[in-house]
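As the work plan foresaw, our protein records have gained a structure token line. A representative record is set out beneath this paragraph:
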Amino acid sequence: MDVWLAADPPFFGGPGQGTRQIAELFVAFGLTALIGLERELQGKSAGVRTQTIVGTASALILLVSKYGFSDVLQDGLVMVDPSRVAAQIVSGIGFLGAGIIIFRRGSVHGLTTAAAVWESAAIGMAAGSGLLLLAVTVTAMHFLVVVGFLPLARWLTSRLSGSVTMHVSYEEGKGVMSRLLQACERRQWQLTDLAADTAELTAAAGHAGVLMTLSGRGIVNAPMVLAGIDGVLGIHQYDDDPD
């Protein structure tokens, strides 16, 4: 028994518990906290706490998968695959992301935020694997996507044909819908989908609502143009890339 205890690794500072692994955890913590801060500023459900916990926990699971079973390994007797535990992160984050995505008024919301949670897990795994340069690079790419792509998409949409989905609330029985369709026809916007909102009818007397999808050139200006029509009470636009 004394010989076995003498061979035991130290309680602290054993394999996988050095300064390098601590640094990798802090890298995962810092990078995913940046992503979470961006999501928080955008008012999304998975903010700083969620993204940071996911990223740091993924890094820890990766380190456990790499080093957590070194004390039971024996040549020719006990051999383990260091990727088996880390592989479960991918399926586990899939369930977490599914809980973020919701379907409301004919539109899907939360896709980008769910993808960001998946991304935070990947960044944490890269940091835990010691691939710090890749973790930093993907974090930089995240900000390029969320900051740079949306203005670019809007710029292209204003010059090319595109589509937009809106929920329009209006006063019922005053010919508002006809004026909406006439405004779209004048600008050569095609109505590709139209659905009545029955909840709007019961919410307030004299109010009606529709979910409409328009396509055409300069469609990015459609919400502002239609909001100026007499009798329109409000317009909520659904982004092409809903968060």
Remarks:
- The radius of gyration is 26 Å.
